[in-house]
Please model this.
Amino acid sequence: MKDHIIVCGYGIVGEKVCEVLKENGKEFIVIEIDEKKAQKLKEKKINFIIGDATSQKVLKQAGIEKAKAIITAIDDDAKNLFIIILAKELNPKIIVGSRVNSEEALEKIRSAGADITVMPEYSAAKELSREIARRYLKPW
Amino acid sequence: MKASFAIFIAILLFVLEVVLIVFAGYPIQVGIYETLISLFSLPSVIPEQSFYLNPLVAVAIIFGGISSIFVFGFIIGATIEALQEVRISFSQNLKDHAIVCGYGTTGKYVVNFLKKIGIKYVVIEKDPLKVRSLVDANEKVIEGDATKKEILEEAGIKRAKFLISCLNNDSSTLFTVVMARALNKNIYITAKIKDEKFKEVLINAGANFVTKPETNGGRELAKKVILAIS
Model:
């Protein structure tokens, strides 16, 4: 694999990430630690590795050195942070998109090298705001 | 109305007390003095024995006691009323406004957005610390549980146009949505949920738009990364 995207964690965020990547015809591989979730990946015919994404070995197995981007979608900021540091070390050119779970972690994840940071709570807030604006401007 | 009635009773009882004391043979000054001391619990100038000797004096003193209850009752009642008015007053003049339930990460963002777009709003928040910081920032906030009818009414739910539930508990969200819908048929209700399974329940309960942070976040994350690599 080359110029692909690595997705770490297949929770609800990871699942949605994969859905959008698939829709856009992107090549990607998922790293998931939970075997039950891996079963779901198998059914959906998504490439995956069972393992801990915070391990250098697993990241290398996912082809981090030749990957274009990595998306950390784990609900644990410390893990995401660690993966980002590892990923940047293994491939300094890699584009990093990260889920951020708490406001305190935002700056730390950014300074660790994340190019894109998304906080689900903010995304929901944006969605709610958009909906209100839509309704406000077009009341019918 | 009630306050003026209390004052009327109090004055009537005071006058009766003075009249009774004078009737019992004391000068009018003593009557007025006795009346006033019943308010402030000062020592009486009438010897205690005369309470037993002259029933008129005893009755007069009782009247004074009752009337002071009315006076204090009136003072306390008026104070509480005034305080309540201050609480309700700011949402009383709101109309076509938005009610934001919960001031966490999501609520904070929504509030900033409403401010930018120019929609008037009021926040309902349970946590006293967050309420204090909102009050300090001069924001309209009601401290309380958004699932409660009185709190929603205080926020002017009947005149509101939007309700945005940003609570971190799906069952509270459900309660809030049901209550809000019962109080206002036309209000536009949007809500954040934690569990996808609640989506349909909330829509059936009267929510107009329901969203889940993880789904929004996943979509945004993927789209931004795709944009960055292409």
